[in-house]
Amino acid sequence: MASANDQTPRPGSDIRLGDHSTVVDGVDQRPVVGLVLVGIGSREVGNRGAEHRGGAGFDGIMTSEHHGGFAGYLPNPLQMCSFILEENEVGWVAPCPLILPLRPVAQVAEEIAWLDSRHLGRVGLGVAAGALPLDFEAMGVPFEQAVSLFKTRLPQTVDLLRGRNLGILEEDRALRRCAASPIPVVSAAASTAAARRAAGCGAGILTDGMSSMKRLRSLCDAYDAAGGTESKVLIRRVWIGEPKNELIAQQRAVYQSYASGSRISAGEQTIVTTDPAEMAERLLAFCREAGADCINLRVHLPGITAAEARQQIQVLAESVIPGMRRLMATRGGA
Q1: Cis peptide before 97 (omega within 30 of 0)
Q2: Which H/E stretch holds residue 237?
Q3: Which domains does the chain have, with CATH numbers?
Q4: Is the dihedral of CA 314, 264, 125, 10 positive or negative?
Q5: Distance of CA 193 to CAs 188, 222, 223, 230, 269, Å?
Q6: For 253-268, how does the pLDDT look when each residue is reduced to its tens digit (9 = 90+)?
Q7: Distance separating alpha carbons of residues 93 and 34, to the nearest angstrom
Q8: What is the pLDDT of residues 180-191, one digit of tens each?
Q9: What is the pLDDT of residue 331?
Q10: Which end of the chain is more exposed for a tag (fewer CB within 10 A), N or C?
Q11: How far apart are CA 24 and CA 203, in angstroms?
């Protein structure tokens, strides 16, 4: 194990989340939620991304947080990341999004930094304010404080994971190392103000999967206009095969139950086709139209089996992602 004070450069220490590839959200028997990012355009998937790309064709895995048995999510996304890292020699991981107001900033930063010291250059972080009251009730945090806590803690977290403003943590070797090898952070952004906030503190953005294309474009444009230089990650649900309309409708209803009505698109957010080549074309066009450079693909639907989720992941890895890479190579950036 490499210690935190080891001065050996970390492999891929210059890699941001946007330098990686596609995100798949699958539920396994254990359960495991996997998200894999695909870099588009300016965050190109080149040699740096390939250095940490997993054998299944995905560059990384991201785990999302909800409590109380919320379908397709985990209450302990960072712990699950550690399990995944131990079982895989390549690929990066990130708890994304982790609900930041539920934990002290120092705890989040220390755990992320030390996990990265164990698995050099293979750890990132995504954070969100949280939207489900149950998550806050379970952890004993007042739900009405979610936004104010998040606004305060986001820049603090980014600073610590860049080795800045360490304060009383200045002797922590893992955090000090972040000054030379920053750990990438993306922030959930559901408004232009949130996108500008992320840009201002040096984080990337993670948009939700319910917004219209027009709204997504406005978020990415606001981020760019505010001087943002990190990843702009979009979420899209995908399904290869005959559409499971009833399950897709159930999934939409779940998110509509707590998402702001003003940001929910009237159109269908799940991209369904039987043709992997068409899926690759549509996903790349979607990213370009939105002005994003990464995409987060999710395949979990209420009631699907682990075998069905694995099959979706396999098709994405073997056919869709290679198709996207070929399209990016031949057509250039966004």
Answers
A1: yes
A2: strand 232-240
A3: 17-329 (3.20.20.30)
A4: positive
A5: 11, 8, 9, 16, 23
A6: 666 666 555 555 545 5
A7: 9
A8: 999 999 999 999
A9: 75
A10: N
A11: 22
